[in-house]
Amino acid sequence: MKPALSAKLLQSLASWRNAPAWHIAFSGGLDSTVLLHLLATLAKTESLPPLSAVHVHHGLQVAADVWPAHCQAVCDSLGVRLQIMRVQVQPGASVERAAREARYQAFIELAGPGSVLLTGQHRDDQAETLLFRLLRGAGVRGLAAMPVHRSLGEGRLVRPLLDVSRAELEAYAREQQLAWIEDPSNADPRFSRNYLRGHVLPLLTNRWPQAVNTLARTAEHLSEAQGLLDELAQMDLLAASAPSAFPWLSLPSLSLAPLCALSEARQRNALRYWLTSLTRLPDSNHWAGWNALRDAKCDAQPLWPLADGQLHRCADRIWWLPMAWSDFSDTPQGWLHPENPLQLPSNGHVYFTGQAPKGALSIRYRQGGEIMEVPGRGRRDLKRLLNESGLPGVVRGRLPLLYQGQQLLAVPNLPGLAVEAHGDWQLHWMPPTCDQGLS
């Protein structure tokens, strides 16, 4: 019969037994040391995915320089392969947050399709996280604390010890005579989490011995509530997710009218759900930006700047533009071989269907004041033609224009905006793609 902790761990990992690989985030501390030892021991009798460990070295303190060697020695003794990843922590107001972001970015780079990264957070960590976020004024999503599992790059992040107390981990470590690293920064009360761990939680548990279990259970209730809010958001987004009039434009977008028909609380809930995969979410003080965007006049084309991009309103639709959208070169490009697609720097590519027009061709971008000859309509101002098309204003600066000499010959993807020519041809533009949702 398996020890209780081993059985509990196997049960929590049952859904990921068929993963192509299990990577263990191994800091060398108590939690990850116990997790690594448990899994390495179970692998001798159980059919588990291939195990490996990863140690992220932040280089923030001199004491940490010896930790990779310790981790290597532990992994060698257990027969587990170790990968050491060195990261640069960006300076900022919160060293803890910057180190965490650097660490998880390294984990994302490591995670392959379907692979699982296992971390050692436990029940006491969950209680601490709930208190920390409560004091920061977090909403339901934040107070749900750490999920048992979530996506991580192309794989999953799993916390199989969230239902295990620190006392259980310490008892196992003593029984197995394990050695682990004590990070000296964990005793520094200047860090908020350390203050909660060293000063606040002991007071609470002295008065309420089950405080840690109760707080962790509260986080579970809030996680369930957040799941219901997510289901409501999915329902509310159905009507707003009708495709735009420009299917070739793969920017994420929503129809505004169905959102405006909801209560303000449901609007925010739906938008939080939609924005989660696109950007870090704003705090409650910044949601006034949504109200300003929503209530602006139809011709105002307002925007709401967020951490990783901008939300724009164009007529009756809102569009998400990631940071990468503004990074492109508007330098004119000569098109020497029109039978082949023309790659545009950071702006996708253009190509012809049918026989391309004869003569010297080039791609330019809007400067203002462009005029083109429209079949059956004569000379027309390009700005007015684009207004008639309804093309979102945020796209127009990147729209590649086809010139023959000094004549504006065609605008891609917009029906009717091409000069008549011998032969049947069309100009097409494939906008760029990126991992923030351009395609």
Arrangement of strands in the largest sheet: 3-2-1-4-6-5
Q: Remind me, CATH topology of the largest domain?
A: Rossmann fold
CATH level 1 name of the largest domain: Alpha Beta
- At CATH level 2, the architecture of the largest domain is 3-Layer(aba) Sandwich
**Proportion in β-strands:** 15-25%
Outline:
elongated
CATH homology group of the largest domain? HUPs
Number of H/I helices: 14
On the 0-100 scale, what is the average pLDDT?
Answer: 89
Low-confidence stretches: 435-439
Approximately how much helix is present in the residues? Answer: 25-40%
Report, as a whole number of angstroms, the end-to-end distance: 52 Å
Please provide a written account of the structure.
The chain has 439 residues and is α+β, with helices and mostly antiparallel strands. The chain has 3 domains: 221 residues, HUPs (Rossmann fold, 3-Layer(aba) Sandwich); 83 residues, 2-Layer Sandwich (Uridine Diphospho-n-acetylenolpyruvylglucosamine Reductase, domain 3), CATH 3.30.465; 98 residues, no CATH class. The chain is built from 14 helices and 19 strands. The strands form 5 sheets. It has a 6-stranded mixed beta sheet with strand order 3-2-1-4-6-5, with helices on both faces. The protein has a 4-stranded antiparallel beta sheet with strand order 7-10-9-8. The protein has a 4-stranded antiparallel beta sheet with strand order 11-14-17-18, with no helix packed on it. The longest helix is centred in the middle third of the chain and has 30 residues. It starts with a helix and ends in a 9-residue tail after the last strand. The relative contact order is 0.08. The C terminus is likely disordered.
